[in-house]
Give the backbone structure.
Amino acid sequence: MCSQDEFRCADGLTCIHGDLRCDFFEDCDDGSDEINCSECAEEMAYLCASGQCIPHTWLCDTNIDCADESDEINCDGCSQGWFECPSKYGCIIDSKRCDSHTDCYDGTDELDCTECADEGYLCSNDKCISEFLRCNGINDCNDNSDEINCTACTNNGYLCSNGNCVAEDLSCNSFSDCEDSSDEYNCTVCANQGYLCTNGQCISGNVQCNGQNDCDDNSDELNCCDVGFYLCSNDRCIVENLVCDGYDDCGDNSDEIHCTVCSNEGYLCTNGKCISKNWRCDNVTDCEDNSDEIDCNACVSDVNICSNGRCIHGSLICDGFNDCGDNSDEVDCTVCSDGGYRCADGKCISQRWTCDGFSDCDDGEDEATCL
């Protein structure tokens, strides 16, 4: 026997509290507490024409929930005070709109908001999310506005130097996920087959040895010479046919030592060093053993005098090569011959020294506009 404030299920044996009658939850095993209802106990319930109570969100969702199918007829919209979810996902009460909790299956009840209830967070794109999702390293707003101007990151997120939060697994993954790339510094290992620079920076393995200084310390461009190239002592790579040609193509002269023959009509010193033929008998010791200044005649005519007193041919002025040895033949130039590159201060350097990861112009402009 059920008490006055209880409801007897159709099986005649089970009693449930009267408040559970018509609340759109089947508390009786046979569901008899949700049929033959005259009204529904819950505000969010819908009363079917058959007297059955179902959640209001099941109304007009293309699924038949009322026994008489009344939940899927006359589905032109929701009644006043209710918000219609798109794609026939049903209706939710207006108070659920912009409350920072997703009630429509597609989340449209949290879009196009002007303010958020329940102390929610209003994204820059007018979406409401829970304040607990703020600065967790996950783009919950879809415009990432919930992950900027953070002082700390929850959910093990990584705090960028500029105050943005990114997911922890994006740190040291060889790709810059922080706008300031701070997630790729102070690393001990690089994910995604990245390259670990000597300074602890992670870069993509694809940019190692590409001729560009991607590591701040240029360590990605060390020991990088391909077949057909020569590795200078300063780790610069030059084409092999430039070795022992009498010109300092490496920049540290390491390509002109230990030679057995000199190309380009260069002069072979007794100690195996190649120098420019124009430096022979110029009263300046270029071979360390002074062999370039032995058995000399006077300098030939049609020459220019370098600042150091060396004689070079006029055709070598402003050609991008340090023929004088003190570089005085490559300064104050108005144009560079032989395809040389002219720095802003009038200095000529070799064209192949541009965008090679080394600053040869005094102001570094030969490395400033490289891709």
